[in-house]
TrEMBL record:
Transmembrane segments: none annotated. GO terms for biological process: proteolysis. This is Membrane dipeptidase. InterPro entries: Metal_Hydrolase (IPR032466), Pept_M19 (IPR008257). It comes from the Bacteria. GO terms for molecular function: metallodipeptidase activity.
Length: 338
């Protein structure tokens, strides 16, 4: 066993953003074609995962909002059922994740990607929290009723901006998320909305799957002003494994990236805002995957590259899970009146 292998085995590793296929998710108890299933997690020493119920943006109409809400809740229940059926531990609080790791159990957390499913009904947030949701990504591609998106969708008739950042409904949603202990995820959110969310939220916000715009000029990445805002507010950027966020296209027009490219973005963010405000995610089964980290089975390769670059065991633990668990605890404390 190499030093980095032992280090990875001793580290609580948590991937904060993995999508699930829908409407027919394969059973993750056995080997599947997915990047993340339970056998691959075991093979790669990945201890915990946030499975996201992803909602593609559609028309902003009552019927479409209701359909999105129905889909979100069906996906959340499917994640819970498959985890329970496989004997995995469903976790909605930081202490639950740590207890699962100590017991040698796989921890499964839940999230919703795109507040589209709320429609205009804030009461759904309490339902989602009851189903175990630890964060809500405010938007996806395309503006919704909560916020402008970093990527407007012309096919939906989007102008460059709809609300000038957050809408009044979006502000109310953040207040309710704070009250419930749901983290505010600003991935996919326009810079205007992201900066407003940082100012408004009583608990630190997180970008669960993004990269650094200084290294790759992509509308989904965070620029230095945004990174600085996260540091000032105690927030967190989770560097993700999406080739188009990591590198410019090759001469043939394809996006290719390696584990070293991920850690280049980690290095940049750490130097810019500090180790306690940076983490890791994959966006597997939603577009993530680079050479050396094509699936959960190769998760140890990130630990090996971090160790090669001189990160300590404590720092690697912060990047893999410690920083995200800190934000979860803060959200829990805010919800409890702390």
């Amino acid at each position: 066993m190499t030093d980095s292998t032992a280090l990875h085995a001793a580290t609580l590793s948590l991937d904060t953003h993995v999508d699930i296929p829908w409407p027919s998710p394969p059973d993750p108890r056995g080997e599947t074609t997915r990047c993340v299933d339970y056998p691959k997690m075991v093979a790669g020493g990945l201890n915990a995962v946030v499975f996201a119920a992803y909602l593609p943006q559609g028309p902003r109409t009552p019927q479409s909002h209701e359909e999105a809400a129905t889909r979100a809740e069906a996906m959340l229940r499917s994640i819970r059922a498959s985890a329970a059926g496989a004997g995995r531990r469903i976790c909605s609080r930081a202490a639950d994740v740590e207890a699962a790791f100590e017991a040698g159990d796989t921890a499964v957390l839940l999230a919703v990607e795109n507040g589209y499913g709320l429609g205009e009904d804030l009461s759904r947030l309490a339902l989602w929290r009851g189903l175990g949701v630890c964060y809500l990504t405010l938007t996806h591609n395309g503006h919704n009723l909560l916020s402008d998106s970093a990527i407007p969708l012309a096919a939906l008739g989007d102008a460059p901006a709809l609300h000038g950042g957050l809408s009044e409904f979006g502000r109310a949603a953040i207040a309710e998320m704070n009250a419930l202990g749901i983290l505010v995820d600003v991935s996919h959110v326009a810079k205007s909305g992201m900066m407003q969310a940082v100012e408004l939220s009583r608990s630190p916000v997180v970008a669960t799957h993004t990269c650094c715009r200084a290294l790759r000029d992509h509308p989904r990445n965070l620029d230095d002003d945004q990174l600085d805002a996260l540091r000032a507010s105690g927030g967190l950027v989770q560097i993700t494994a999406v080739p188009a966020f990591l590198r410019n296209a090759d001469p043939d027009g394809r996006f290719r990236a390696k584990v070293s490219d991920i850690i280049d973005h980690v290095d940049y963010a750490v130097k810019r805002i500090g180790i306690t405000h940076v983490g890791l995610s994959s966006d597997f089964d939603g577009g993530g995957g680079v050479e050396g980290w094509r699936s959960a089975a190769e998760s140890a390769s990130l630990t090996a590259e971090l160790a090669r670059r001189g990160y300590s065991a404590e720092e690697i633990g912060l990047l893999w899970s410690g920083n995200f668990l800190r934000l979860m605890r803060k959200a829990e404390a805010v919800a409890a009146g702390g």
